Amino acid sequence: MRVGYFVAGALISFAVGTVSSQDLNVKWIHGSDPCSSNTDVAFQVHALAEDTFIIRENKCINYEGPFIYLLFGNDTVFMQDTGAAPAANSGIAFPVRETVQKVIDDWSRKHGKTGMRLLVTHSHAHDDHTGGDSQFEGRLNTTVVGKKPEDVQAFFGIANWPNQQVTLDLGGRILDIIPIPGHEASSIAVYDRKTRILLTGDTVYPGRLYIRDWPAFKSSIERLASFVKTHEVSQVLGTHIEMSTTPGVDYPVRTTYQPEEHGLQMTPANILELQGAVSKMGDTPVRDIHKDFIVYPR
Fold it and tell me: Are strands 166-169 and 197-201 parallel, antiparallel or unpaired?
C-alpha cells in the first residue's frame, strides 16, 4: 500500500512496509487542460527505495514535466537535474530546492545524519534540466557541477571523453558515470550499483529521442548496449514521458495534459532495440517510430 503527505508544495509518496527497488507502480502527476484548473502539487516525490527518490515536476509549471533523481550515500546526496523553470514573470512557484531540502532533512533525521553533502549534477545541459541551478548555487554543503563538457569531464575525472567510464563514491554507494553525447554534448548516463537502475537522461526515455550529433549518438548507444549486456540492469529511467499508452503514439510537443501516458520505466531490451535501429540506419538517420520511443533526428 502507498500513502503520502504534502510538504513544501510537493506530494511525498512512500510505501508502507518494505519498499522494493522495482516499485514504480505510481500514478505520476500529468498536468491539466487547461492549466488554470490544475490543483496538483509543484513536485511529486516518489520513494523508489529508502535512499532513492524520483521527483516529477508539474507539467503546468513547464510542459516538459521532467524527472529529477536523488540518490543517497552515507555522506553525499547525488542529485541529477534541477528541473524546468516556468516562463519568466509568470508568477508560477518553482520550489525545487525547498522540495529537495525537505527530502534530505527527513532522510537525515531518520538515519541520524547531519551535514549531508549535496552534489548537483545534470543528465545534460539543456534548460529544462538546469532551470533550478541558481537555487542551489552558493549554498552550504552544496556543489553544482558545471554544464559544459569540459566541466563534466573535469569534475568526474574523465580523461578520455567520451570513451572512458568512471566511478563516483557517495559513501558506501558506487555510481558508474558513462559519457553519452549525441543528444547534447555533455550528456551522461549513470548506473547505480545498489539498485541497478540506469539513468539515461534524454538519450533513452519513452518519447522522442532528439539527435543533434548523429555519429556521437550512434557511438553512445553502442556504449550503452555494451553496458547493459555486461551488467545487471533492473530498470532504465530517463527524464521525460512523451509516449502515450498507445504503442508508437506520442503526445504533441508542448502538451500540458497527458492522462494516458506511458510508464517512466524502460528496459535493457529497449536499449538493444534502439541500438539495432540506429545501426541499421548507417550514416543517414531517419525518423523511426517504435512502440516505446521514436528516433527523432534534428
Answer: unpaired
SS3 73: coil
pLDDT in tens, 234-290: 999 999 999 999 999 999 999 999 999 999 999 999 999 999 999 999 999 999 999
The 10s digit of each residue's pLDDT in 144-154 is 999 999 999 99
Cell for 224?
550503452
Distances (CA, A) of 18 to 21, 52, 117: 10, 14, 27
Q: Report d(CA 189, CA 177) in Å as an integer.
A: 6
Q: Which domains does the chain have, with CATH numbers?
A: 2-297 (3.60.15.10)
The answer to whether the CB of 293 falls within 8 A of the CB of 101 is: no
Helix (H) or strand (E) holding 150: helix 149-156
User: CB of 283 within 8 A of CB of 273?
Assistant: no
Residues 253-279 as b or e (16 or more Cβ within 10 Å = b) = eebbbbeebbebbbebebbebbbebbe
d(CA 100, CA 222): 34
Grid cell for residue 220: 553512445
Distance in angstroms (rounded) separating the CA atoms of residues 106 and 276: 44
d(CA 217, CA 179): 11
**Amino acid (one-letter) located at 35:** C
* pLDDT at residue 25, as a whole number: 83
Q: What are phi and psi of 217, to 5 degrees?
A: -65, -45
For residue 284, give the C-alpha cell. 543517414
At 212, list the grid cell.
543533434
